[in-house]
Design a protein that fits this description.
Layout (H helix, E strand, L loop, with lengths): L2 H24 L8 E7 L14 E11 L2 E7 L4 H38 L18
Antiparallel strand pairs: 1-2, 2-3
The structure holds zinc ion (ZN).
The site of zinc ion (ZN) has 6 residues, from loops.
Length: about 140
């Protein structure tokens, strides 16, 4: 197998992977930016359990970057699970899209190699016009 066959094979694998990711993007469900964090607090009241190493909580907050600043939004306990699903989904979407862009850059370079490998130089006398058609 020559090098260009390996390049073709690799390109084909990347195209399949990208297609899978793109299909997932097409089916994007509701999502939410940020990350869910849990916090524990001490109320400071004398005699409270929080003063003896048992802090209150967890309390859930959505942490987001808004205009360069970190913002916290309180999330009621009964919504924490749902918000977690939404923020996880958002993280997945970002990851998928980053990978799609990465694959795009790699494919561009592989396509360059593939196309270049079949380019006929008209100034060369030893061109075989019937050469590597391959298709
Ligand atoms: Zn307390």
């Amino acid at each position: 197998m020559d090098d260009i066959s390996k390049v073709r094979q690799y390109a084909s694998v990347l195209m399949k992977e990208r297609r899978k990711l793109e299909d997932r993007i097409l089916r994007t469900k509701p999502h939410m930016e940020g990350s869910l964090i849990e916090r524990y607090t001490r109320c400071g009241k004398p005699g409270c359990r929080c003063g003896k190493g048992q802090p209150h909580g967890p309390f859930w907050y959505l942490s987001r970057c808004v205009e360069g600043k970190t913002r916290y939004t309180y999330i009621p306990k009964d919504m924490a699970k749902e918000v977690k699903v939404l923020v996880d989904r958002n993280a997945r979407i970002r990851k998928d899209r980053a990978r799609i862009r990465e694959i795009g850059r790699k494919l561009d370079s592989l396509f360059d190699q593939i196309v270049q490998s079949q380019l006929i130089d008209p100034t060369k006398k030893d061109n075989d016009p019937g050469g590597d058609k391959g298709d």
